[in-house]
Amino acid sequence: MEILLHLLQPAVLIPWILAMMFGIFAGATPGLTATMATALIVPITYYMDPVAGLAMIIGATFTAIFAGDIPATFLRIPGTPASSAAILDGFEMNRQGKGSLALTLDLICSSLGGLIGVGMLILIAPPLARVALRFTNFEYFWLGVFGLSMSAVVSKGNTLRGLVAAMLGLLIATVGIDVISGQPRFTFGQVELLSGIGFIPAMIGLFGVSEVLKLAAGSDSLTAPSITEKVRVPIFKVLPVVWKHKLLMLRSAVLGTFVGALPGAGADIAAWVSYGVAKKTAKDPDQFGTGCEEGVIAPTSANNAALGGAWIPALVFGVPGDAITAIVVGAMLMYGLRPGPLIFQQSRDIVNSIFAIAIITQFLLLIAGLFGIRVFSRILRLPRNAVMVIVLLFSIVGSYALQNSFFDVYIMIAFGLVGYYMEKKNVPLAPLILGLILGPMVEENLRVGLVKTHGNFLPFVTRPISVLLASLLILTLFGEHFLGFAKRAVAGNGAKRNKKKNGMSDGG
């Protein structure tokens, strides 16, 4: 009760809410990621009370992750990398005039997923963190490959083209410094390419600039508003839908928490993995990608839950789960707190405050999210040509702001042209982004693992967790075919028995 009273003091509550509003702005602006929002908040909190500072940081990150789904749904431009899976069904729902329904569903599932992730953080942090720390290069390799297998899942019938796009993403991910030898690869003498091709400007170009080009080349009127529906937030209409898919939401949140607890995985991988698993286990997987509610629920429940999961190794062992918690660990050290097993004894009040802040944030997220949806929808009621100019402006600013480099703007434009061409040829864009995101993770862990074993691949397929992940991969890719074959075999045997039985009856 004392902690709650402290959190509700104006000196804590006002900066907390302002930070959440900033998180909405940062998440909904392409290029201004949740990580960037966190990094910009930390210096402001330097002279503040640690609890108020942590409230601002936690509030901004959770709202930024949700807010990234707003432009993903309305414009097919992910606001953050964790929102890239939201374009598959959220944007399709918007095209059907259900954009506000999709975002309301998104908002409620983000809040519930965050609550589940924080609940798991509170209840099972130590044992889950111990499992996460058992992951070595061998397990991370299979985790990355498992994530890449989602490219076949999200390709909407174009599995071969989806795999080609994923391979193209993997190829582009090899540009830069070789992780083992330190030699530059495919840089062609360009200093800017030494650090590789950033997937955020690439993502903005693929989904944002290509959409602008498609609209400009299309036959639709550019003076009509981008969205014609009057945006309402039908919370009471959405609650029965959430209840109907409660098991999917729960499973996606648990899966997102576990993936988030793996150092280096993050909310973006959690969203893609949850989407793929949801599609594979659905009664009608063909509906995914056409604007189905399950395709909205799965990724948004997972990415917010992954934030709670990322705090597990950060708090228990001082090992950040992702870039955001790496910044948070630095902020905690700045406050004189030392994350690790002893923090639960030495700074128990702070830990309890963190738990309370994370829980209350999920409820404040509902208010901040409603505000963000309403504001963004008003902007989108402007004529399409005005919205396209705004989108291009924010895309350029977002790409440039990453490293204060015009080279990232050129990358964005180049990928916009590539994305426009790929869409004309019906090649899905999502697998290319998957390849870009997961390529470094797969390559680094494969090569470091082979260096450790002197070229022996056997540990990749003999360690228990590796075997489990490899089995899940095979089940994901070929489980449907095995099941279909088994059903046909059983049906065939049944027909033979019936035929034989009928023959015997006729003979009798």
Average pLDDT score: 79
Q: Major β-sheet, in short?
A: 2 strands, antiparallel
Overall body shape: globular
Strand content: under 5%
Segments where pLDDT lies below 50 for 5+ residues?
A: none
Strands, total number: 2
Strand order of the largest sheet: 1-2
| Terminal Cα span | 83 Å
Number of helices: 23
Describe the structure.
With 508 residues, the chain is mainly alpha-helical. Helix content is 74%, strand content 1%. Among the domains are: 1-135 and 236-381, no CATH class; 461-508. Strands 1-2 form a two-stranded antiparallel sheet.
Fold topology:
Elements lengths: L1 H6 L2 H19 L5 H11 L5 H18 L1 H7 L10 H10 L3 H34 L4 H12 L1 H4 L5 H15 L2 E2 L6 E2 L13 H19 L17 H10 L1 H15 L5 H15 L12 H25 L5 H12 L8 H4 L1 H32 L4 H20 L2 H19 L5 H23 L6 H4 L1 H44 L1
Antiparallel strand pairs: 1-2
Based on the model shown, name its key terms.
508 residues; 74% helix; single chain; 1% strand
Short note summarizing the structure:
With 508 residues, the chain is mainly alpha-helical. Helix content is 74%, strand content 1%. Strands 1-2 form a two-stranded antiparallel sheet.
